[in-house]
Write a structure and sequence with these properties.
The chain has 611 residues and is α+β, with helices and mostly antiparallel strands. Helices cover 36% and strands 22% of the residues.
Length: 611
């Protein structure tokens, strides 16, 4: 644009004149084009919104047309299964299950096999009490400190040092009362503290148990936990003994070390020479054992491996390693070892090499479940009885305890009844979704194709709408009991001939009487465009309209976009013309202003000659 002059020579408001003239030109030339562009953009947006309504209806229809035959999750096969006593058994369906009442009696439930150390591990004995440190007992939880005993009300305090062996503690207890209270370890590894009295027979003095004495052990002021660590809570004659054998096992120490309390776990290679590693195999899964492997580490690795199908734990009460199968049924836990004698040491196997075998009494075999379903005996390795085992297809029964236990509750019955009935909740929700999507689509199209709508009269869209609406009242040529949507309670009402409504009572009756006919009325599976289901037919129209290449929306969108592109080009050209028009105005007015300025100058000069 050329530089502007605002009437300096003439004194006229040229800027205002140009602005008004340009504005008038925009109003006559540009504004109609911009208004048309806005209308086209609104139409484009509305077409996109209507397309979304079609897509929503498409999704609602596909719930029926695809799910009947093509989906692994078929809402038509949903069932409600009610157990007469959930405490004994429950059931779920994994597919279509016919309505029925299933009678169930449970003789026994399936249990898991357990493997447990044949004997308590690392227990104290008369042979090892001189070397076994007291603080290593109870998996290293025993504490040194003071320990009190009360004999006939008199308190005796024992000081247990950090370095004391079990023999040292026994000696301190025995000497504190000059033999009136004595501690000992029996052949089973039990620790005991009892009251004794002197007895003279044939001139010889000895101590015998004093059952008339009153002996109490432990006080609130003790700093040693000997009573709890050694589990001295079982009354035994004149005193107390450990309720479980006392163990030296330390689960945090390397198993091949003396600190583990297990005894030496030897690692040998194939030639019988000391090796750095060995391995144990549980249910076919190998676990390496080396000089740093602890019992806790081994337990952690077993529990972290799902392929081994067992869970391991250390029972600190009985001092035994326990392997529990994660699977139920009558099957052993297989065990073997190579280069190490660990399983022998843990009391899970005995013998070696080809003679190695499960230690006698170490495994308690699991049992299979036994139930009677409608009088037929069913044996299952699992407490979940599948349809394959029971003969009732797609029914999965979970049993929890024998019905023979009913006597524990007088209100319980010996038999459990599983009542199986169809559940059409999802079907009804899907039909409500369809009706909502249909009504929303119809309302939107009627609004947007009216005289005041964004799309305006569109014969193609109105024709498509009429086809869809016609299907809702059409007669279906199928082999079922129902031929119209109105037969199952889906129709327009007298007060509203446009929107669909659902008569819940009529729909429930149709589903209960013949749900297969309801399925056929709605869809035959939509495997081809010749299906007779009403939803099949409607889906054909919907998907034709949504076709990416030749559908209504592809064509309509291309047309509107082309018009928008054309309109933008026209606006661009009009804007260029208005800019040129503005430049011409400024040029012409500037020339006028310069001419007036020149004339004014000549007039002023002439005036000086005649004054």
């Amino acid at each position: 644009m050329s530089s502007t002059i605002t009437g300096v020579g003439s004194g006229f408001d040229i800027e205002s004149w140009v602005s008004q003239l340009v504005s008038a030109k925009k109003t006559s030339m540009l504004t109609p084009l911009q208004e048309k562009l806005e209308s086209l953009q609104k139409t484009d947006s509305t077409v996109s919104d209507v397309k979304t309504k079609f897509t929503t209806l498409q999704s609602a229809l596909r719930t029926f047309t695809n799910i009947i035959y093509n989906s692994s999750s078929d809402m038509w096969t949903n069932t409600t299964i009610t157990s007469s006593n959930d405490a004994y058994a429950t059931a779920v369906s994994t597919g279509s299950v016919a309505s029925a009442n299933v009678n169930l009696q449970i003789e026994q439930i399936a249990t898991s096999t357990t493997a447990k150390s044949a004997n308590s591990l690392g227990t104290i004995s008369k042979e090892n009490i001189e070397s076994a440190k007291f603080v290593n007992l109870a998996n290293g939880q025993a504490k040194a400190g003071t320990f009190s005993m009360f004999l006939d009300g008199k308190q005796y305090e024992i000081e247990i040092a950090q370095k004391d062996t079990v023999k040292d503690v026994i000696d301190k207890i025995n000497t504190a009362t000059n033999g009136k209270v004595q501690a000992s370890v029996d052949d089973n590894g039990n620790f005991s503290i009892k009251a004794y009295k002197e007895q003279v027979v044939d001139g010889e003095t000895s101590f015998v148990e004093d059952t008339s004495a009153s002996l109490m052990i432990g006080s609130g002021g003790d700093t040693s936990n000997i009573v709890t660590a050694l589990k001295l809570n079982e009354k035994d004659g004149s005193g107390y003994k450990s309720s479980y054998p006392v163990s030296l096992v330390n689960t945090n120490a390397a198993m091949v070390s003396s600190e583990s309390g297990l005894g030496e776990v030897k690692l040998f290679d194939e030639d019988g020479n000391p090796a750095q590693t060995g391995k144990i195999t549980i249910n076919g899964v190998d676990f390496e054992i080396n000089e740093t492997t602890t019992l806790n580490n081994l337990i952690s690795r077993i529990n972290g491996n799902s392929d081994v199908n067992v869970k391991a734990s250390y029972d600190s009460l009985t001092n035994k390693l326990v392997l529990t199968s994660t699977q139920t049924g009558q099957s052993n836990i297989s065990l073997s070892e190579e280069g190490t004698n660990l399983l022998n040491v843990l009391g899970l196997t005995e013998g070696s090499g080809e003679d190695e075998r499960i230690a006698q009494g170490s495994q308690t075999l699991g049992q299979n479940a036994i139930a009677y379903i409608n009088g037929n005996k069913v044996v299952s390795s699992s407490n979940t009885i599948t349809g394959e085992a029971s003969g009732i297809a797609n029914l999965s029964i979970t049993i929890k305890k024998p019905t023979s236990d009913y006597s524990n509750n007088e209100k319980d019955d010996k038999d459990v009844t599983l009542e199986i009935s169809p559940d059409y909740t999802d079907v009804k929700e899907a039909l409500n979704t369809f009706v909502d999507a249909y009504n929303d689509l119809v309302s939107t199209i009627r609004t947007e194709t009216s005289s005041s709508g964004s799309i305006g009269h569109d014969s193609s869209l109105n024709s498509l709408l009429n086809n869809i609406r016609g299907i809702t009242s059409a007669i279906s040529d199928n082999d079922g009991k129902f031929s119209m949507l109105a037969d199952i309670g889906i129709s327009t009402s007298k007060s509203d001939a446009v929107n669909l409504t659902i008569d819940e009572e009529k729909l429930d009756k149709a589903l209960a009487e013949d749900f297969e006919s309801v399925k056929m009325l709605l869809s035959d599976g939509y495997t081809s465009k010749t299906d007779n289901g009403l939803f099949d037919q409607m889906l054909v129209d919907i998907e034709n309209a949504l076709d990416f290449e030749n559908g209504y929306f592809a064509t309509k969108s291309d047309s509107v976009q082309a018009q928008i592109t054309s309109m933008n080009s026209r606006i661009e050209r009009a804007t260029t013309r208005i800019t040129s028009y503005e430049e011409r105005l400024y040029k012409q007015f500037n020339q006028m202003d310069a001419t007036i300025a020149s004339l004014n100058s000549q007039l002023n000069t002439f005036s000086t000659y005649i004054s």
